[in-house]
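note to self: dont lose this again. the chain is below, predicted strucutre after it. 249 aa total, dont forget to put it in the shared folder this time
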Amino acid sequence: MTKREKLAIVRRWYPNAMTTIDTVNQLIDYIEDVLDLEPTHIMMADSICSDDVNSIQYPVRTAEFLGPFKMGGLDGYPFTGLTGMGAFASHVPDDGAVYIYYGPHIGISKEGALGEIHRHGQSHTSGCCGAAKAGLKKLQDGKIKKGEISELDYQMNTIEQILLAEENRITSSGEPLLAATEVIYEAINKRINELVSQTKYNCHYVILMGSILINSDSDMGSFSALRRFEIIDLNTGKSQDLTAVFSGK
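---
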């Protein structure tokens, strides 16, 4: 299957999706050509789901960055909090930048099925993101209780509370899993903003890339639907929104 054919499948659901390989290549080009930095001067953190498929489908070129520091738990929510962000910030080169890639993930099989992928060595599909699908099912069945968070399943319960807060929006959607994924993205984006605003970085730039990370079958690879690309210049305090440029709009 060609790259064009793969993109056609994914773009039925996410029109601005790019392969994650192209996303990383575009980012590195910008870092080198515009910011005049080398990838080895960039400390990377990601807040993406701890699902093993995200490690398997991680673009190889991200190894050119320092890191990654892992901030995310189930479906990418930054469960490491201020302590994690502070630790990550203290590891960055003085004359470099921090790069944070974050967002929930969702599966799209090569048959175009939403929320499903064929994993390596399996003859059947499995859910992706399993946590989002489980939370959605519990929401639709009316089984999420407001404020109910246990130590035994803290991360899953947190995802459930995020979904419950937007119950009407999700359950009234023609594609509830798509809506649930957007709701989780918005919660992650809000929390990343809170963490960044309360963290001191001893470097030149903070690079924020928020996306919907799209997994597919083992022979399809992964894709990224950009929601935010912002550069914060720590010397001037000014930020530059490059989302439209990077998403091809």
